[in-house]
Fold these 4 entries.
Entry 1:
Amino acid sequence: MIVQEHFDVNGRDFIRTYSDAGRYVVRDGVPYGEACDPAEFGRTYTEGELIPPEERMDEMAAKAEAYDILMGVSE
Amino acid sequence: MALDKLVDSSQLDADLTSVANAIRTKGGTSAQLAFPSGFVSAVQAISTGETDYVKMAYTTRTYTGRLASDYAFQIPNLFFPYGKMNAIFLPNATTASAYSTAGVQAFGWCTNLKTAVIGKPYYLGQEVFRNDTALTAVDLGSTATRFVNAVFSGCKKLDVLVIRRNGVCALLYTNAFDNTPFASGKAGGTLYVPQAQIAAYQAATNWSTILGYSTNSIQAIEGSPYESAYVDGTPIT
């Protein structure tokens, strides 16, 4: 299912669109992992193919954190 | 000297030989090591960072002729992690092949990398420049069509990004700029694109958010220091 959340950037209303099923959100043939747009644009998205596991945010974040620890990279 | 322990000299010799062999193996030598001064000097002579150099040398030899050609970006993890490399100049590199894996972490954790020129990329794979903490400027030439996730994440000094394509390079995740000057609440960065594309970037999905942060700016390549040169000053040929 497509999920939309509002957020604010410098007083401007934006909408973040993503799939709660781990799929791309697609507009004009472009598959986004997540899509953030000014709310007034009124853009709509459809669900696309499943995002590959290696590209999913949670897996990537966990892996990156492990690398950072190993490499001594701190925030 | 106090003698308060019994020592099995044979066992001690064996133990010291074992330690000496380990030092010799690590240091790449077969020399006899006198105890303790020889052990100390041998350990001190083992150069640090040698792994990076060896890997880089191996990579260069294996892919000679391709680093500046069409394949440099197609091999996942090719350069990861090569801390000694401080500049990449690949004016002919492309990612025309495998969509989902091209370039994954290709230059990730290159912590001395300051500038990068990838002249003809089609697609920037996941985490291509992740945690390149010294990286300040990247030039992506005129062909890049899309970024995936975390491409520049952790590049804390990245404040110049040049995209020469006459069309918007789709930003598939805003986290491409996490923990960079382009991110929310950070110092800010400048995106250089063709004059004719500025409005399109300002309206583009995800780019509109990044460019919505007041600290960031978008400028025309035309008339900028990058109009006729890559970010490292090397002219386009």
Note: Residues 2-71 of chain A form one domain.
Entry 2:
Amino acid sequence: MSQDLLLKHGLIAAVVIASLILAMPPRDKIHLGLDLQGGLHLLLEVQVDKAFERLLERRAETLRKDLIAKGLAVVAVEPNGLQGLRLVFSKPPERSVVEEVVRNQDRTGELRQQSAEVWIDAVPAKELQDFRENVVAQALEKIRNRVDAFGVSEPSISREGTQRIAIQLPGLTDTKRAIDLIGKTAQLEFKLVQSQAPSLTATPPPGMQLLPMKKKDPRTGQLVDAGAFFVERRAAVTGDMLTEARAEPDPNGQYEVRMRLDRRGTKLFEKVTRENVGRNLAIVLDDTIFSAPTIKVPIPDGVAVITGSFTPEEARDLAVVLREGALPAPVTIVENRAVGPSLGSDSIIQGIRSAVLGSILVVVFMLVYYRFSGLIATVALALNFVIIMGVLALPGLGATLTLPGIAGIILTLGMAVDANVLIFERVREELRTGKSPRAAVDAGFDRAFSAILDANVTTIVAAVVLFQFGTGPVKGFAVTLTIGIAVSMFTAIFVSRAVFETVFRLRRVTALSI
Amino acid sequence: MLELIPRGLNIDFVGKAKFCITLSLLIILLGIGSVIVHGGLNEGIDFSGGVLLQLRFSQPADLRGVREALDTIGLGKGIVQHYGDEREVLIRVAQHPGEGQDIGKQVQQAFQERFKDQAIELRRVEVVGAQASADLRRQALFALFYATLFTVAYISWRFEGKLLVSLSMAVILVAVTNGITQLLPGISPAILIVVALVVSTALNLILQLRFALAAIVAIYHDLLITVSFLSLFNVEFDLQILAALLTITGYSLYDTIVVFDRIRENMRGRRRENFPVIVNNSINETLSRTVLTSGHTTLVLLALYLLGGEVLHGFAFALLIGMLSGTYSTVFIASPILVYWHTLAARVQAGTLSVSGVRANRAS
């Protein structure tokens, strides 16, 4: 055998062996999509604008105080959409004073006068953009830590677009728990209670806000409304002063979350409890009051407890989110898809069955129609399948096999044979013109190549566009389609040609079985 | 040697073009009518938003009971159907549940109360919010737009050998559509697709890229036929259908490329022969591969359609239709367009038809 041909066989053998090593056993090596192994897919949207609004509100408050301290007649300082702050005065203020106060806020805003009494402290576009970027990155990090608490193997968390986060949790189907643990902002605040609110829609007195209280219904386990309170807008202590949070059983056999505050928090907590003995302190989580116990004695040790008749799991999850800290912005779940494990395994069986039937049909046809050459195509087809599996299992690629992905493999098996059909038909034509088998085969491969390439490129173009755009299972189709077509070019053209050449080399072929 | 197509076969394909074009138009019109009657495409939750639930009962489920049970938790307006077999039930609800609601558990509990003697397994829950589905729909249309755009650019290059022309065509298309989106940010990508369709067809006409034009018309034809069938059979449009449509844009070209390659090859050899005859001969010469390649793909897709399970049903159906349409359009749509173009161009040259007044004047 010539060196050239030996090299070809060596290459083919190497690729096949490498694929086998990579993909064996497929059950362990090939990463299955959530639609095949069951699991939960969540798409979260980070409410960046809401977080920015809050930031502006806090700024407005500080600015208002500073302006008043300078003796200016301030009517209001309020957020002006997301563009900045609107300063309203009762009589035209002195320009230099306003400018000085605003400059002292330590920001790079632009100050504009809208009318004699109204000024605008504008936020540069770049700042909003940076803020967005930061908030989403932070949220991603926090969510990653929270997801770790599930102990799910191989979770995947990725950013999607500008402000969305996609989460894949294989094997998990408890949607409610996942949403509670991941989707909760976990903004913990301690706020002094002014009074019970007459209704959920009552107007709070100045400096106060109305917050609903929720209690767990012991029968259904659902949270139900339990009145509302007017509480101070300003939080006495916030969750970012926590150093520790853990779930512990309470005397009634249920669970509570016990927290320890840091030094600053302890001091603040001690002060507020000392000055307000007899009043109620609301424990507020994400703008909902969990409990509002009466302060009986000052608490000097910085230990606070959230009680809420929690199950052990709920208490543990709450402790996790409190410990990891609040998300920098609230998130909403815009998409959530859960597939049970039994549906996944049914899908695998159906996918395999149709792949087997499809292959049998194609192989039988090729063998009957092209006989020996059909056998070569069948060998190429088998290798095609093995190599696709090998590529899918490539560790660096991170490919995932989904149900549409299986369909993609089945489809590319058909396409791989298509390439052989084009070649064999061309060979037959060349034979009819009186060429020798060898010359006909050479001409057949050479002349069919450009059509095969073109046809495959147009399909790969579609697959790549789909990959760019698609999500989840459909992305899996784009992946296997692309891999399958690329591999089919190798097997249907390179491998089957090498086999033909070997046959010609080993014996004198006078009539080709094609 | 086993031969599917007898050698020397010479069917007058081009002669049947009028009938076939009429047939295609008729199917597309039926499809449009069906879309109108159905009040739009039957969009799945991917594109319309809402909730999809799949439950498995231990015994055949009675759909009326299922609906009644759903009514008790306020989801009575949902669409309920058997899925695959009698024990499997698929429920589609348009409204989005409240934040933090575990709709899957709620439905399962309601069913468990109603069907006490049955074991009910919750197999799939999908919730897609309104914003997410609107985004998906928009992205889907853009994907379709870009796939056709790139494919058009590629085949203009390969068929006509004019890389610069096809590249500039792609650039012009992107520029035009970008300009439109800049001017009207909220514009539907569907309109962009139509614009791109018109612009690319016009560019091909002006630049006289006849092979590319014929191939592009064939792609549009296949997509329209597939969508028509999907609407006629009321198949749900979801992300998988989008994947199928994208695959069709690429794959339906397979036999078009083969036939067109042969036409060009034959044109080189037999310049003096009548162009319609060359086209018809080329189709006949390549007929066996056209039939064999699409035959194979049809076989594997049939396997997928029959055994692939309910989840892949619509997907396999769409691919089957698109694939068959792709083969049909190669022979009966794309090739005749080439012939028509040629005849038209010949008449213009002869001055018997004054498409371009300038040229006719000069000739006289």
Note: The radius of gyration of chain B is 25 Å.
Entry 3:
Amino acid sequence: MQLVLFLCASFSIIALFLMLLFVVREGFFALSMFGADLFFGHVWDTNINRYGALPLLYGSLIIGAGALAIAIPLGVSTAIFIAEVLPFSVRDLVKSIIELLASIPSVIYGFIGLTFIVPAVAAIFGLNSGATALTASLVLSIMIIPTIVGMSGEIIASVPKEYKEASFGLGATKWQTIKNVVLPISKQGILASIMLGFGRAIGETVAVAMVAGNVARIANPPWNLLAPVATIPSIIALQMGEAAVGSLEYSALFGLGLILFIITFIINTLADMVTRSNLKGSMKG
Amino acid sequence: MRENAREKIYFSTLGIPLIICMLAFFWIVYTLSTGATTLSWDLVTRSALQGGMFEMIIGTIYLLGGAAIIAGPIGVLAAVYLVEYAPNGRLTHIIDQAINNLAGVPSVVVGLFGFTFFARQIGLGISLLTGWLTLALMMLPIVIRGSEEAIKMIPPSFKEAALGLGATKWKSISSMTLSAAFPGIVTSVILGMARIAGETAAILFTSCVFITRGLPKSPLEPVMSLAYNLFIQITVVGERSQVIFGMALILFSIITSFALVAIILRTYYRRRQLWLR
């Protein structure tokens, strides 16, 4: 029986390994054609069969950064507020609503973004089309706030009560205690939650495909959030249906999948390490 | 505890983001609920060939159910291993990390993998079965983590009682710990189902088509689903009518009812488990 249980547990390793293997296998054709250009080439154009992921990488990163810029302040302060200020009686209810926010599917976020936020952005900034990097960042930020709130909330709530009481005992106010005791102890956990949120933002597909405009080009200037962009996952989702199996385009899309896999793998592993060091640190302290 | 007026202001400011989140949630619920006017029993039960949604709704439920049947048992057994059997060593650490990493793989990559591995390499084609396997991969980490938590909550004295009577380790765990943890385990499976019910990117190239003649007759046939049809209607067909709101509302209701049941069950059992200790 123990062997069966062990096999079930190691399923995740096998799945990850197979994923990497098969994505690399299918992407090999494009990789051998373009080499490093597949990752860092400037042109992604189906018409001339050139596939360089840099514009998409740019799109993913700028949208992810924009979403974080909104979600970090909102998410972290929400987490602090729930854990430290909100009365115990409503805490579970509020947490549940945040969790429901997380379970709204991305296709619905995309649809609502397309129906309301896209026209709003167009009207506010006087653009022809409101499908821009900013729009995608706004939609994504709402989608990743629950991730940040959920995890940093748990970390903040797990700060030992004795630490806070010691601080109160020294005459510190509640605000000072949060700032000087709670936050420094939980900062690594909060960092990990932000990293997981970023990982989710980078991998988000359907909602972004609906609101980002899907133009595979680096905006000029690059920090212009009001230009349409395409991201790695959105291009995979939009082009996979048309790409003939075995074609260069098909293979290049798997190359994109490989990039995404590597990025999220690194982010998750780092987040894991940060959480672990946080656990060790607070035990020592 | 000293709390002066300035701090009151600080804390109130801190609460504003929470209010924004709550407002966003209720606004989304309100917006979707306007789709209710387009819905009727007739529309929901009419075949998609005649403009209804029947096959999409049933297809969504088929996809969910199958994925849960695959990921549920594997996830629970994996959780039992991790909590009750796993030695505290390097391999366990790697398994642990692999589960976290699997949870973080973007759904579109899981979809790519499902297409090349299940649909083409194994030869299952674009089918319900391919969708089940692909979605099960996404559900697995959620089920494992939830079941782990549920199993850890059961006091060791439960299985020790059985061990003391001479039962084997597995017998004690399965008859005592697992049955006590059962509600928590079910909760984690339901939560996993809620998380994948609206999943679009993973089924985009693995199991769905825009229109079928009736429901799939075998697991090897493709299936329709609400999420997939919403995505295609909006991005490819360019449909913007009120009917879309109706479809989105049904999808939202299915997911929210799953999530709500899971959250309520979990809150209830967490409180009860606290009493146990």
Note: The radius of gyration of chain A is 22 Å.
Entry 4:
Amino acid sequence: MYPGATSAGVFDLTPTEDEQMLMDAVTELAAELVRPAAAAADAACAAPVEVLEAAREIGLPGLGVSDALGGIMAERSAMAGTLVTEALAHGDMGIAVAALAPGAVATALALWGTEAQQQTYLPAFIGDSGKVPVAALTLSEPSVLFDPFTPATTAVRDGDGFVLDGVKSAVVRGAEAELFVIGAMLDGREALFLVESGTDGLEVEADPSMGLRAAGLARLHLTGVRIAADALLGDTEGVAYTECVRLSRLAWCALAVGTGQAVLDYVKDYVNERQAFGEPISHRQSVAFMVADIAIELQAMRLLTWKAASRAARGADFAREVGLARQLCAERGMRIGLDGVQLLGGHGFVKEHPVERWYRDLRAVGLMEGAVLV
Amino acid sequence: MINLEIPEKQTELVDQAHQLAVHMLRPISRTYDRAEHDYPHELDTLAALIDAISETGVTGGAGASGVRRDASPADAASDAGTVRNGAHLASVLSVAEMCWGDIALLLSMPRQGLGNSAIASLANEEQRERYRGTWAAMAITEPGVGSDSAGITTTAVKDGDHYVINGEKIYVTSGDRADSVVVWATLDRELGRAAIKSFLVRKDNPGLTVERLEHKLGIRASDTAAITFTDCRVPAEDLLGSAEIDTTAGFAGAMVTFDNTRPLVAAMAVGCARASLDLTRDLLEQAGVVIDYDRPAQVQSAAAAKFIQLEADWEGTQLLMMQAAWMADNRRPNSLEASMAKAKAGRVGSDVTLSCVQLCGTLGYSEVELLEKWARDSKILDIFEGTQQIQQLIVARRILGLTSAELK
């Protein structure tokens, strides 16, 4: 009756030692550098260089790359990626997305790239020296009822190569990006293509949105963009593309969990301190029960996300689990953002407190495709 | 290592429980929903079968059996540093399977009463030996006292080597069919919670009278009794746990039972809701509805989108239930997680079963299918063993660090 596969292992919610060490490092980064920078980054529509540099120093861009390909983990693990993404988002979702976006392209190259593609591009992402190239994985398009499995962007065979046409949206740090991974329809199937920013026919347009402003969102117009045959990343049967959509949604779930935890931690202190009618407002059930529900729904979101991640990490099918996790994280995550603002009342509506930013950021979870990957 | 699957060593138990649900509970489910108060005699065979399974397995039984928090030092030493998947996880998984069959019949399982959970949690070694094989109901609620269980008025007065119990209890599950009742009574109403003790009272005690059986919205196959105790003399050795009134220990002694039973109630909701989802999915697919986990829900049919939303909530609930049991298996305090699981399970149980009736229209509303029955059965799960609001209070106090005086 239970659709989930069983496992030879034991049910366990304990991260491995390696995962815990990574989480500790990222949690510290999130608390000490990311959170203090979040409000200014939101206003500036850009993540601060020193925060991105600190993320590079602890190896985040190479997290999805196994050490055989030069990465920092013995084996790439969607579980580790999920835990790290959750921890970073506790600092700020927009900065987390900006910091993790190049890693999404590196992970895509590691997972689906040919040896030649990996040799061409990967060293720049995982080298110790110099800065990591800005790169963006872009699947979304600016249309109503967008379905990533029927993108309007097309790739047409032309001689040895392809010609791309269409518009992609929610491109992270689009203005600075040097390399794009772009989703497009080829012969009636979805496929991924590597496109360098200097290619003719590309035009980047800033696309500031409701939230995730630190991620510097942009639109990418592709008009007759001619690319070589070796620009195809992965297969033409939609296999890599489908896995890419699922792993990306998993990352968005982890971002929702980390941000939801930030809301919970913030509002519980606030409602215990804020006085009304001569006592802390937390002494009222209508307030306290909202906090309880945030805690309950958040933990359900986390467990479902972890389940999908652990299946992905084991190489098991996780289509159902990530589909359900996305549903729960989108719906309940937005509710947490909404209640977070409500619990602070008027104070929640002004930028003096971070809850209005979390509200704007959490709206993204259910509609984003691509951009990040675990 | 993080892993949220059902462990392989417990899949056999889960399969067995599922087979019992399919072959022994489902076929009589509608019969005893209609014939409220008739004894489901088929359960005698089933109970014998379950006893046999429990004796051969690593499990805590397939019914609502209690599971003890403590363990022998040898056990503790042998698995130091390892992660255990033990009797608590086995219990919630098997209870969920049985409730996929029928919640009321699971609650009616001979020798698997809620009082048996209390015995498992509170009784000493000698008592547990003496009560082996009993079928114990649980009597806490009174006409004037529900969620505020510290305020019970039933009294127990020491008289020589007996206690004399007086009071009225209602909503006693299996109160008619069980052969004993675990009763909460106070030794001294002035001393509050610390003076509340549990007593095992045999049904043949002349001071105990089953006054009536309730007619209910759901779980109709389970008998729900009102019981009066009139100068009911109980041997002193049938007081469960310590007779001392320890005001520093507060309510913890009695409340530990709830830490064990709340994940089991969550399991009942998980099983019942899954039954609704499984049947609804079949009916929707027969009608040509396609449910796709990859495509955005909003580009699918409204029915498919609703189904995905319900299933997501269900899956989160199942994992909260497993988390609470996993913590107990690994001897970590779990009252917060047990209450989180029950709170979520109570509301999701109702939402899923009611929404499935809606999705299936008059087919779901009719007695032809069991969907309408599950929508009636599930309501009790958000009420007994602590209502939704009581679970929210427990969770809120823990998260916010507030006392019961601060957050009333």
Note: Chain A touches chain B through 62 residues (CB under 8 Å).
